[in-house]
Design goal:
The relative contact order is 0.15. Helix 2 runs parallel beside helix 7, helix 3 (72-101) packs antiparallel against helix 14 (380-409) and helix 4 (104-121) runs antiparallel to helix 8. The protein has helices at residues 8-20, 32-65, 72-101, 104-121, 130-152, 155-158, 164-190, 199-223, 235-255, 257-288, 294-320, 322-342, 346-374, 380-409, 417-432. With 442 residues, it is an all-alpha fold.
């Protein structure tokens, strides 16, 4: 049929259709610059998590801010619980909102700035600033957690299924490099210890961390392109639409076997890993006898192992497929825990910790890649929000379970056996998981 034979309404419809989807809206293939820029956010995230969460703030809060209080541990524990709860509950909604509005980078920018400002503000906190320091820490942690989820949701847009594991692994390796060098850079400031006399040097670490985080995250915001497309401009309507999407997604988790099995296994093995990693330094001091700056060396060994594991298993995943790679990593954790439980020599403890660090880095990278494979187009942020929900739930359950068992059994040693249970149960679920080979898109 020629244009002359078409009625005016058909011509108008065709004209509007052509205007609605101009060729310029087709997203360009991701460049190497975008992939590298995206990877640098892992550098920022790992530096923040290693310095603020794992190494500095908890001890600084207990020994400096609460120098004359007896409820510091209780307050810090509740602050961590509050952060994990807020992030866990809101991550799926925030992810769905990013998908619906097509403004993922704008939302990412807000959470990124919150983390930087809140982290830098900790430098102004000293002895007696209990509530102010807790609020700043919680704001920084919540901003960091949301940012990590949103950044991860760009992964499926930057790599095809056959290469998604490789890119995730290389980015995680760069993150472990960030963790290693940030700890090394702060080592001179930590050498005198967490004392009131050295509190000024410790506060500089908060400023340094904010600067590292700012520099590491900036390339993503500058060079990574938004590819989701704007679907809904009105924020109020977008929020309602996001809630509708979630009301359909959660039943889908129960209905679809691969989603149910993967996220169930993810919750279990991440809980076991969180139990070990969150308590590694404390376990080393109480059970192995680490003292002075030896806990810092422990973290360095974990970061070194994490870097190697993330690179290695990113390539292995693209070769073996996601299911087999996850099973291999969880088996490494399972047997690594045997060494962690039975070893008493400091040098051997460092070596085992490096192996577990290798498992930790690869577990994060491979799990992130699997979510990228499972998430439907235009729902990436929502599914990574679910990833954040189960990840934060595990991050809260692991240390909580260890603390309760430690208090009940009056031991730092026996509670580590709980991690064996988590890894064993997750292996059972992974064995039933359908194959998730990247080249099939499933």
């Amino acid at each position: 049929m020629t244009a002359k034979q078409l009625d005016p309404d058909s011509l108008l419809s065709m004209h509007l259709s052509e205007k609605a989807v101009p060729p310029s809206t087709v997203p360009a293939p991701p460049s190497k610059t975008e992939k590298v820029a995206w990877s640098f956010f892992d550098f920022a995230n790992t530096a923040f998590n290693t310095l603020i969460v794992d190494l500095v703030f908890g001890t600084y809060f207990l020994r400096i801010v609460c120098a004359h209080r007896t409820d510091a541990t209780w307050l810090f524990g509740w602050a961590l619980f509050f952060c994990q709860t807020i992030v866990g509950v809101l991550s799926p909604l925030l992810g769905a909102l990013a998908d619906v509005t097509g403004k993922k980078k704008r939302i990412l920018s807000v959470t990124y700035v919150i983390c930087i400002v809140a982290t830098a503000s900790l430098a102004a906190m000293g002895e007696g600033d209990v509530w102010a320091s807790l609020v700043a820490f919680m704001a920084a942690s919540i901003g960091y957690s949301f940012t990590e989820n949103l950044t991860a949701s760009f992964l499926p847009e930057l790599a095809p299924p056959a290469e998604i594991g490789r890119l995730s692994g290389l980015a995680r390796a760069l993150g472990n490099v960030g963790g290693f060098f940030s700890v090394a850079a702060c080592y001179p400031l930590l050498t005198p210890g967490f004392t009131l006399a050295n509190s000024g040097a410790i506060r500089l670490i908060f400023l340094l961390t904010a600067a590292i985080y700012c520099a590491g995250g900036l390339p993503t915001l500058l060079f990574v392109r938004e590819r989701g497309g704007t679907m809904q401009q009105d924020w109020k309507s977008a929020l309602a639409t996001s809630a509708v999407h979630l009301s359909r997604t959660f039943p889908k988790l129960c209905r679809e076997a691969r989603l149910r099995l993967f996220f169930g296994a993810f919750l279990l093995y991440t809980t076991g890993a969180a139990m070990v990693m969150a308590m590694a330094a404390l376990y080393g001091q109480m059970q192995i006898g680490l003292s002075g700056q030896e806990p810092v060396l422990l973290l360095l060994s974990i970061q070194t192992g994490g870097c190697l594991g993330a690179i290695l298993f990113g390539f292995i995943e693209d070769f073996l497929g996601s299911k087999r790679t996850l099973q291999l990593i969880v088996w490494i954790w399972f047997f690594g825990m045997a060494g962690f439980y039975f070893v008493q020599d400091k040098l051997a403890f460092y070596a085992i910790s490096a192996i577990l660090g290798m498992g930790g880095g690869s577990l994060h990278a491979v799990s992130r890649a699997v979510v990228g494979i499972l998430s439907p187009k235009n729902e990436h942020a929502e599914y990574f929000g679910l990833w954040g929900l189960f990840g934060r739930l595990a991050a809260g359950l692991g240390p909580l379970a260890f603390g309760l068992l430690s208090q009940r059994l009056h031991s730092f040693h026996t509670p580590m056996l709980a991690a064996f249970v988590c890894f064993a149960l997750s292996l059972g679920l992974l064995s039933s998981l359908p194959h998730l080979r990247p080249e099939t898109g499933a």
